[in-house]
Amino acid sequence: MSSLQNQVAVITGGAQSIGFGICEALGAAGCEVIIADIRKERMQEASEKLVARGYRCDTIEVDVTNEDSVRSMVQQVKTKHARIDIFVNCAGAPPNVVPLIHLTTAEWTRVLNVNLLGVFLCCREVGALMVQQEFGKIINIASVCSFQGGLTIPAYTAAKHGVAGLTKALANEWASKNIHVNAIAPGYFDTEMCAAIVNDPVREPQIRGRIPAGRWGQPSDLVGPLLFLASDASNYVDGHVLVVDGGWMGR
User: Fold this and answer.
1) How confident is the model at residue 1 (pLDDT cuts 50, 70, 90)?
2) How far apart are alpha carbons 21 and 13 in whole angstroms?
3) pLDDT in the model for residue 208
4) Which of these, 198, 185, 158, 192, lies nearest to 245 by C-alpha position?
5) How far apart are CA 96 and CA 169, in angstroms?
6) What pLDDT score does 2 carry?
7) How far is it, in rounded angstroms, from Cα 13 to Cα 90?
8) Over the stretch 155-179, which tens digit does the pLDDT of each residue have?
9) Across residues 124-148, what is the average pLDDT?
10) CATH T-level assignment (fold) for domain 8-242
11) CB-based contacts of 251: which residues, under 8 Å, 6+ apart?
């Protein structure tokens, strides 16, 4: 039930951090991995690393906030691979840590566009293909901020609440069509997006001290949950937001 051999997996934001860890995990599981990212150089570097390890990998440049670009991505995959078995929405923009009264409309729009509009556009276009196929797995990357308010990151929190809600709505719509939509909600992970906090001598120990596991998450901590949601082992799991946070939400 857990075999992913020869499945076609597309990962947005797969060129670095959590996205690249997801690509590694799916490549090791036997998938044909397609990195979809806006950063051409980073994407090429990531692809070369996967190929060097013996994994099958392709790349597609995409701007998830642009309808035409997302449609082109799906069409390219369909033309070359005929189908998409697994789709992971991992493209994201870091929040601007600022109180709401100082948050500009432009910054609000930037964060919402990448973290929520991009998920919507990808789900819509990929979902249309999966409806035709009558199967598929969509895994959205949410956050513990899908459940909490965060601290002076209102745009990011709003976006991640939206990702959780969209995940549940699409599960209701597509579960009967053999399309399973779920999400993973990471807690605090030691990635490039969190570098400023990781390197903050005051904030970092405060956060780490609140995590029952006593450490920040690593991309490898997402492998088990990811492979479960991507495989047939989770075929009766729909609309679930799986928290991977070292116990953060339990405090």
Assistant:
1) low
2) 11
3) 94
4) 185
5) 28
6) 64
7) 5
8) 999 999 999 999 999 999 999 999 9
9) 97
10) Rossmann fold (3.40.50)
11) 210, 212
Q: What is the pLDDT of residue 191?
A: 86
156 is catalytic: yes
Place of tokens 């001598």: 201
**Which two structure tokens, joined as six digits, stand for 82?**
């005929």
Distance (Å, whole) CA 33 – CA 8: 6
Evaluate whether 84 touches 59 at the Cβ level (below 8 Å).
no
Instruction: Tokens for 173, please give them.
Output: 């719509």
d(CA 32, CA 55): 8
Confidence of residue 101 (pLDDT cuts 50, 70, 90): very high
Q: What digits encode the pLDDT tens for the residues 15-44?
A: 999 999 999 999 999 999 999 999 999 999
Residue ranges per structural domain of the chain? 8-242
Sheet holding 136-141, edge to edge: 56-61, 32-37, 8-12, 86-89, 136-141, 179-186, 241-244
Tell me if 229 sits within 8 A of 184, measured CB to CB. Answer: yes
